[in-house]
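ugh ok so i messed up the first submission bc i forgot one of the chains. this is the corrected input, ALL of the components this time, i swear. 283 residues overall. if the numbers dont match what u have on ur side tell me asap before i send this to the collaborators (the ones from the other lab, u know who)
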Amino acid sequence: MLRLAIQSKGRLSEQSLALLSESGIKVPDSKRTLISHASGLDLEVLYLRDDDIPQAVAMGVADIGIVGRNVIEEKQEKVSEVMHLGFGACRLSLAVPATSGYDGIRWLSGRKIATSYPVILDRWLKENNIDAGIHVIEGSVEISPALGIADAIFDIVSTGSTLTSNGLREVETVMASEAELVAYPELNEEKRKELEKIVFRFRSSLDSHGMKYVLMNIPQESLDEAIAILPGMRSPTILKLAQSGWYSIHSVVPENKLWESIERLKAIGAEGILVLALENIIK
Ligand code: ATP
Ligand code: ZN
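and heres the new structure output, hopefully the right one now
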């Protein structure tokens, strides 16, 4: 049995649970206790604050964990990175008051920067030979320039709207982050095998994101053209309809190409087009 640590409450919790669910792993969602036992796979789920996940995994209290790359880098715990999970995208950036006259990273010399990520910031400042003060704050870093606590901030940004509403301007992006699956570096053979199963399931669920299953009827004379428009995974599936001269064609299409493909297929006589959601792609 593996024990997986996920964030108990916050921006990564819902998507962590959704990934489990798409992977056929059901977690009782009634009342989240500290630990709950999943069904569909022999797995225990441990709910923690995201900040505590790297240490829990480094110590083997949890065998695996789902946590942002930003937290992994900040905590400097020894964990193995297993896979990117494609959600929780954000970046760690430096921002200054919009009216500050910032003109490049030298502007930061001798200034005070507020952050909850002192380790990552300190490393970046050293790499860039900038001598600046770091002021560590846990919550609401973005208000510190207005309060006169700091000249600049170093914080998580996703859309940038929080910065704008606090009169700040993003000036340097230091690191990009997304949720990662991490593991205790010394998992035994048996646990390694269980981890492989989970990775396989996660991958097939992530691969299906942004993909749709489409099926439609096509007249015989347009079949070759339709096959060229719908490449599918290997090639599309073609089934003969009971009515002669007509075929049903099935394929998997990336969402960003969906409408363009459908318009071209309609133009060559496709009828009865169905677009279905995909849950998993097993490669
Ligand atoms: P906890 O109570 O677990 O310590 P938290 O307040 O530290 O929670 P959240 O705000 O829930 O953390 O964010 C969790 C993670 O979500 C971040 O560490 C980051 O990896 C990711 N994330 C993605 N977008 C954002 C965003 N706009 N703001 C903050 N975090 C984001
Ligand atoms: Zn946190």
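quick check: The CA atoms of residues 216 and 239 lie 10 Å apart. that seems consistent at least. The mean pLDDT is 94.
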